[in-house]
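For this section, I looked closely at the sequence of one protein beside the tokens encoding its backbone, which the following lines show:
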Amino acid sequence: MAMTPHPDALLIAYLRGELAENDRRSVADHLAACSECARAAENFQRILNDLGSSLPQPPQVHWGAYRAELGEKLEARRRPWRWQWLRRPVPLALSAAAAGVLLILGVQSWISGPLGNGDLASLEETVVASRLDLLRQYAVIERLDLWEDLDVVRRLDELYPGRKG
């Protein structure tokens, strides 16, 4: 009998009973003739048995609970969708965010309510007018290295008594 090539790739499938009848017969004939492949098959079978015994047993299925849960899911699908979308988290979160924004805007307008746009403009004009002297001497301020020399800028008129503004 001529020796067929070693069926290394088919040994595991053979041991698990996953081969078609022709392939199974071919591998069985080869294992009967080749002691090296027979030893490899025995080793693989031992490894498969060890792996199978180390796996935990799957839990038993409680068919009554399964049927009840399946019935609830089917009933939930039959309910009208008219108001169910409101119970989902996304519309709820968007509603909460919108309410928060409205609350912040309401509080802000309530706090700043007495001040109108005209009052704010007059306040800005007062602040600018109080610093107008500093703005007139802006060319000198641009040349200063440090803002710490601001005191010198304020006393420029005293440094050069003959010059004005």
